[in-house]
Amino acid sequence: MDLQTLFLFALASISLNLVPGPDVIYIVSNAMRGKMRSGIQAALGLGVGYMGHTFAAVLGLSTLILNSALLFSVVKYLGAAYLLYLGISSIRNSLNGKSRLIAAESISQSSNVFKQGVIVSILNPKVGLFFLSFLPQFIDVQAGNVTMQLMILGCVFSVLATVINLLYAMLGSFVFGNPKMSGYTKAIEGVSGGLLVALSAKIALTQR
Q: Could you point out which of 14, 32, 140, 148 has its C-alpha 20 to 30 Å from the C-alpha of 60?
């Protein structure tokens, strides 16, 4: 795996994690309901869950890549389409002013937010689907040692996701609890969406 691919993967990971989703809403909700500490615990719990999905994806994708080049190509293009969908949805939400960063009233307080975060992440099938569709986009079969490439990418994504989630937790109660800051959330979502659209186009047009 070359440095250019790793840099592109890091940029894509940051863009994806900046887009508000269920995990970010869970973190911000905990931060706004309790203290910054609750948001941080939620972010760390989700990070542990990401690592669990990383190991599962590595095992499944390694087998797929080694046994069926056709199925691997299908997974890659479906993953590119999924990234395109996420990018367009983020841009539309930004233009329409429909920020998803609203504290969910349905989230209950827990005495162990960290443990709850791990469970929320591991039991979320969409996270596993995301890993299976995202990681293959950056694998170079010709470079060899596919399992190690997948493991490196999965760990990089999990670390970057956790860092961004921690930032959301620390800024949650101040930024997203203030209506005057809504413009910043829309800008973040719009820029991240644009990067995802560009990434999906690059993946679709690149010949491996």
A: 14
Interatomic CA distance for residues 93 and 139, integer angstroms: 31
Sign of CA dihedral 144, 154, 70, 204: negative
Instruction: Please count the CA atoms within 13 angstroms of the CA of 155 that sit on its side-chain side.
Output: 6
What is the distance between the alpha carbons of residues 134 and 153, in angstroms, rounded to a whole number?
10
Which span out of 16-25, 45-54, 171-180 was modeled with the highest average pLDDT? 45-54
Confidence class of residue 74 from pLDDT cuts 50, 70 and 90?
A: confident
Q: Which residues, 6 or more positions from 163, have their beta carbon under 8 angstroms from its beta carbon?
A: none
Helix (H, G, I), strand (E, B) or coil at 69: helix
Residue with tokens 């190690």: 148
> 119 vs 16, 63, 126, 157, CA distance in Å?
21, 26, 13, 19
Specify the DSSP class assigned to residue 177: T
